[in-house]
Design goal:
The protein is mostly helical. Helix content is 66%, strand content 2%. It is built from 14 helices and two strands; from the N terminus they run H-H-H-H-H-H-H-H-H-H-H-E-E-H-H-H. Strands 1-2 form a two-stranded antiparallel ribbon. The chain is globular. The model has no long low-confidence stretch (mean pLDDT 95). The structure holds Phenylacetyl coenzyme A.
């Protein structure tokens, strides 16, 4: 959530325009391939700004998957049954896998995973705002699966057609797994919402707390988004932040109704003319404050990641020693 890039939004946009103004023949051919919906592969020519934009987005995405394991990890030992515990552990393990595919995709662009992880540990890298909110009751695990994975998948299905091949291919598998995650979350919410009065209240409380932060996952409104216009031209992004947010709201409201729960937005209303739900104002001051690093759990999340990395040092050392031994034996043979 912290960033070392202290340029204003206007300055970032100006720098981007200047970089794009210096186009050569390679850039024209590159854009023609994008316009023709061809994938760009690691060894293909790509403008430096395209490469940097991808590293930024893929790294933030990878960090989100890894940090995203923490709010759920908080509940593994307190899951109410063996079945729920197994599902939760499997889901968290999937998120680790997603982080690994994404770090690998970023590495094809010439950065090292170690450098990216170090930036995260030093508080210099961004990750999704959503993971700086606490998971307070068991129903939060249902709400995370239903809403957070639901928002993630809404954003990620179009990324299966993003223009950079390794990122697009990683997304295909990620989306299959996220779809399972969303369903298990909804099934948990259903069990709570149809359970005792106290369970139903827990489910409603979880929805109240996770609804607005889930809408913020899609990023700032289009008019405040620094990167959308260029990322759409490069087909890194296929839809704008607001388009995906609206798609998520339209899909989720009937699901909330089926659960008998109420979305905490008094302004929410079906708009017949638009064919979409109208919704109330999102608290963008809260969003930017979490982006800046002031989220409730921001410090704990980074501390937990650093501790996990340090605690795992012996595994990395053992793997390296084993690989060196294997190589030695291969040389002798
Ligand atoms: N949080 O110009 P835009 C998951 C920043 S995965 C923090 O609109 P862009 C799985 C943005 O970086 C969830 N920062 O940016 C799971 C930029 O700052 P910069 C993650 C945010 O990139 C589930 C500035 O604001 N998914 O949940 C956020 O064009 C359950 C201006 O914004 C992805 O990363 C935010 N929410 O659009 C795991 C998907 N939004 O870099 C465990 C891929 C914006 O200039 C449990 N990413 N910012 O300093 C994307 O699609 C895009 O990067 C967006 C943002 C749409 C997130």
């Amino acid at each position: 959530m912290y960033t070392t890039d202290l340029r204003t939004k206007e300055q970032k946009q100006k720098d981007q325009r200047e970089a794009i103004a210096q186009v050569g023949e390679d850039d024209i051919a590159f854009q023609a391939r994008i316009d023709d919906d061809q994938f760009i592969e690691p060894k293909d020519y790509m403008p430096e700004a395209y490469r940097k934009t991808l590293i930024r987005q893929i790294a933030q995405h990878a960090h989100s998957e890894i940090v995203g394991m923490l709010p759920e990890g908080n509940w593994v030992t307190r899951a109410p049954s063996l079945r729920r515990k197994l599902i939760l552990i499997a889901k968290i393990q999937d998120e680790a896998g997603h982080g690994l595919y994404l770090y690998s995709a970023a590495e094809t662009l010439g950065v090292s995973r170690d450098d990216l992880v170090q930036q995260l540990h030093e508080g210099k890298a961004k990750y999704s705002t959503i993971f700086n909110y606490p998971s307070l009751n068991w129903a939060d695990i249902g709400a995370i699966g239903w809403l957070v994975d639901g928002a993630a998948i809404t954003n990620q299905i179009p990324l299966c057609r993003t223009s950079y091949g390794p990122y697009a291919r990683a997304m295909v598998r990620v989306c299959k797994e996220e779809s399972f995650h969303q369903r298990q979350g909804y099934e948990l919410m259903m069990a709570m919402a149809k359970g005792s009065e106290a369970q139903k209240q827990m489910a409603q409380d979880a929805l109240n707390r996770w609804w607005w932060p889930s809408l913020m996952m899609f990023g700032p409104p289009d008019e405040e988004s620094t990167h959308t216009a260029q990322s759409m031209a490069w087909k890194i992004k296929r839809f704008t932040n607001d388009e995906l947010r609206q798609r998520f709201i339209d899909a989720t409201i009937p699901q909330a109704e089926a659960l008998g729960l109420t979305v905490p937005d008094p302004d929410l209303k079906w708009n017949e003319e638009r064919g979409h739900y109208d919704y109330g104002d999102i608290d963008w001051d809260e969003f930017w404050s979490v982006v800046r690093g002031d989220g409730i759990c921001a410090r704990d999340r980074i501390q937990a990641r650093v501790k996990a990395y340090d605690d795992g040092a012996w595994v990395r050392e053992a793997a390296e020693a084993y690989a060196a031994k294997q190589q030695q034996s291969a040389e002798v043979a």
